Amino acid sequence: MARILGHTVEPPGPCSYLPEQRSSLEQVVMEDVSPEEYEHLLERGWRRFGPLYFRPACQTCGECVSLRIPTETFLPNRSQRRARAACGHFRVEVGPPRVDEERLELYRLWHAQREESREWAPSPLGLRDYFLQFAYPHPSAREVAWYDDTAEGGSRLVGLGICDETPRAWSAVYFFYDPAYARSSPGSANVVFQVELARERNIPYVYLGYRVEACASLRYKGTFRPHELLEGRPGLDEPPPWRPAKP
């Protein structure tokens, strides 16, 4: 059973996604969260990084909308099929998250490119922080590692998806990749692969986190269709009202 170690609601501060808005997060630090308990949170719009579980608590903005893909009905569009094919020669390994310099260097390469192209704030990440955010021990934690075995000099890690798996939910938490492979659209290929994987495992939903239409870094999630959107912020004792998005 989950043990709550801390519960806070941030005071409003600058929003990372919409500069004109003020943002706030409700945050709970927990340990011993079972996959079933975590699934209950996912269904109600919560996300996880390490032992920290969070969801928006903004009072004046509702642009962060939880999105999930029903695996049985998902149909990739033309560009998503093209991306999946372009990355089809990569070797993919699914397993527990790992921490090493290879993964850390991949994250640094990817984030540096985002800082330049999208003016992201620098995000220095050492082995300790990587462990706490992406590889903290949890029964649901998974990683999807993409390797180019044809790379010069031998097999090379080119993309990494941080994920969570519960009996009825697959959560795509984070993805980063080598910018040298950007033309293959590994981000789109990663989502399509994870839906395929969840379908093979009889998992009905893939959760993509929050879609923010006015934010380029998060708007893309709405292109994976059909999908469902969560209305509001239901309490833990309330049924979650998921609705199919309009075509």
**Rough outline:** globular
Distance between the termini: 40 Å
Note the total helix count. Answer: 6
Total beta-strand segments: 14
What is the residue-averaged pLDDT? 96
Our count of domains comes out at: 1
**Biggest sheet record:** 8 strands, mixed
Strand content: 25-35%
Under the CATH scheme, which architecture would be assigned?
Answer: 3-Layer(aba) Sandwich
By helix and strand content, what is the structural category?
Answer: alpha+beta
| Rg | 18 Å
CATH class group: Alpha Beta
**SSE pattern, N- to C-terminal:** EEEEHEEEHEHHEEEHEHEE
List the quaternary state of the chains: single chain
Order of strands side by side in the largest beta sheet? Answer: 8-9-10-11-12-7-13-14
Helix content: 25-40%
- Tell me the CATH topology: Aminopeptidase
**Which residue ranges are poorly predicted, with pLDDT under 50 across at least 5 consecutive positions?**
none
